[in-house]
Design brief:
single chain, mainly alpha, Serine Threonine Protein Phosphatase 5, Tetratricopeptide repeat, 29 helices, 69% helix, elongated, disordered N terminus
């Protein structure tokens, strides 16, 4: 009789290879590759979006659909807002569960990608390609960066809609389900529009879908999205902050950056050796290294795609259709991030979450088109699968190593700052040192940030650090530089002026504070907190009528209890407490 140990064989885990076994291996490999990310802390925007985000503290549907940190500055992502509200209610500030959920959603997306590839390609090949999507180091930013859950949600809902659309018959119920999923994709991230475009393109050119059906889906999704975004949320499209270098360029200047951006994604896909967050580099002139060479690579890549298409046309028209589908997928995803419309960074690995499927799919079609005769050569199949294993192992190890970089905020920022000089990285490193009151190290990084690119936030951080180091003269000089730092969105710049005003008011004489705040009000005349701070200055200088005027002005602009309290103190002639806090109550 055979024992259980005798009956078990490693080969049996793969042969015969089935869809169910493929799914099991996708789950197992996903957990292995991203396991060490589960013990990472909150990093980068996790801190603002999760730890210091008061609206997450209570479940309020009006807040979720209206203005909050996720629905701000031109972006409207209420699904992400709902998700993080729910997560905070369940797990508070325990990072482990956020990373676990992120990993699970990425694995689910990978399984859906497997079903997508399986519709066009053979089972074994679809499995291999899916593992590239699952384990590629460029995915680390999408998986271990908890705050960008919207990237995975838009992909999840959009791909579900696309897979449903692939069914031969679209019933009314299925049409409603597709429309609902597309709407959820759009409400997760604006990039969800790409799935709507893909469905329409596939329906017109391949499926010969009823144009009326496609029109109804498009109009219903667009209308509901517009009602939620503009009618309920009140979120409109606005230009990117002018502190982002790419946003300060004209359209013509941004177009010069397209070849280098295109090359970045191709290069990083095939050689993911250097992975960096917060990339703000720009190409200013059309020289060989930064424009003509990348342009040549882009044209060469497109030429290879054209030659491949011609070859497939001669050999297999069905595979040609598949190749065109994935090429359109890749190009659509890339065009969205080529800075035709300026974004908040030049490039970001997480923006490749959608395009990578198209690129992998194109590679898969090419592999499937290879002559089967060659694959039957003795030992060739073994060699090919060995190469595939080496590729996957290399990608997985690189991903595991990159997960370590994301262990905590300071580890990630200092690691990436050694590769690329970046004003925002340095500013964030300074902030991290500031949290531990390591003021000398904070000063060094804030100074480097300001030297690379001065803007209101890093100037304020530098001035505040000088105050903590008791260098009041240098702090005052830096605060006045904030007044001339207008490279910021109006609302953000106004908030930074209020921040400056707060520190000037409580660290300098009323005369100096009045001078600074008066100049700040010229820049931002409708900032109620500046008016409140001016009222305090005037009152302490004995100018009661001017103080009343300023306090009344502040009260008319903001209805904060502290402002009303200040107004009543001035009216009644009582002393204003030295520790009164108007701006940061």
């Amino acid at each position: 009789m055979k024992t259980d140990e005798q009956e078990f064989s490693f080969k049996g885990l793969f042969v015969p290879f089935t869809t169910l076994k493929a799914i099991h291996w996708i789950v197992i490999i996903g957990f292995i590759v991203y396991f060490n990310s589960l013990f990472n802390g909150f990093v980068w925007d996790d801190i603002a979006y999760i730890l210091y985000n008061p609206p997450l503290r209570s479940f309020d549907i009006i807040t979720i659909l209206g203005k909050n940190l996720f629905n701000l500055a031109g972006q409207y992502r209420p699904i992400a807002s709902f998700y993080f509200t729910l997560m905070f209610m369940l797990f508070r500030d325990t990072a482990f569960f956020y990373h676990l959920a992120s990993m699970i959603f990425h694995i689910i997306n990978s399984i859906l990608v497997f079903f997508l590839f399986k519709k066009f390609l053979k089972l074994h090949l679809s499995f291999f390609l899916t593992l590239i999507f699952l384990t590629h180091p460029m995915q680390v930013e999408s998986v271990t960066f908890a705050a960008v859950a919207g990237d995975k949600f838009f992909f999840l809902f959009g791909l579900l809609a696309l897979l449903l659309f692939f069914k031969k018959r679209i019933s009314i119920k299925r049409g409603i389900a597709i429309s609902s999923l597309l709407l959820l994709s759009l409400l997760s991230k604006e990039t969800g529009i790409l799935f709507l475009i893909l469905i329409c393109a596939y329906g017109v050119f391949y499926k010969k879908a009823n144009p009326l059906l496609l029109t109804i889906i498009s109009i219903s999704v667009g209308t509901l999205y517009a009602i939620l975004r503009f009618g309920i949320g009140g979120i409109y499209f606005i230009p990117q902050s002018m502190i982002v270098p790419i946003a300060r360029l004209s359209l013509g200047q941004r177009l010069i950056n397209i070849p280098e951006i295109f090359l970045y994604y191709l290069k990083t896909f095939f050689f993911p050796s250097q992975l960096i967050i917060m990339q703000y580099w720009i190409v200013k002139i059309k020289d060989f290294q930064n424009f003509y060479f990348p342009l040549f690579i882009v044209f060469f890549f497109l030429l290879i795609c054209l030659i491949t298409g011609i070859s497939l046309y001669k050999k297999n028209s069905k595979l040609l259709k598949f190749f065109i589908f994935f090429f359109v997928w890749f190009l659509l995803g890339l065009i969205m991030h080529l800075q035709i419309f300026s974004l908040d960074m030049t490039v970001a690995d997480r923006w490749f979450y959608f395009p990578i499927v198209g690129l992998i799919g194109m590679i898969g079609v090419v592999i499937q088109s290879l002559n089967p005769r060659y694959l039957n050569v003795k030992y060739l199949t073994i060699i090919l699968w060995t190469c595939a294993g080496v590729v996957l192992l290399t990608l997985s190890v690189r991903t595991i190593v990159r997960n370590v970089d994301w262990h905590d905020n300071l580890t990630l920022l200092t690691h990436d700052s050694k590769i690329l000089d970046n004003y925002n990285l340095e500013n964030n490193i300074g902030w991290d040192y500031q949290q531990t009151q390591d003021w000398p190290d904070a000063l060094n990084h804030y100074k480097k940030s300001v030297a690379l690119f001065p803007f209101a936030e890093n100037l304020n951080n530098l001035a505040h650090t000088y105050i903590m180091l008791n260098d009041m003269g240098q702090a005052r000089v830096i605060f006045y530089k904030v007044l001339d730092s207008s490279d910021y969105q109006p609302e953000g710049y106004s908030n930074q002026l209020a921040f400056s005003s707060y520190f000037v008011l409580y660290n300098y004489s009323p005369e100096i504070a009045k001078d600074f705040i008066s100049k700040a009000l010229i820049k931002s005349p409708n900032n109620g907190y500046l008016w409140a701070d001016l009222a305090i200055c005037e009152y302490r200088l004995g100018n009661k009528s001017d103080a009343i005027y300023s306090a009344n002005k502040a009260k008319s602009l903001i209805s904060a209890p502290a402002v009303i309290y200040l107004y009543n103190l001035i009216i009644s002639g009582r002393e204003i407490p030295k520790n009164i806090n108007i701006t940061w109550q």
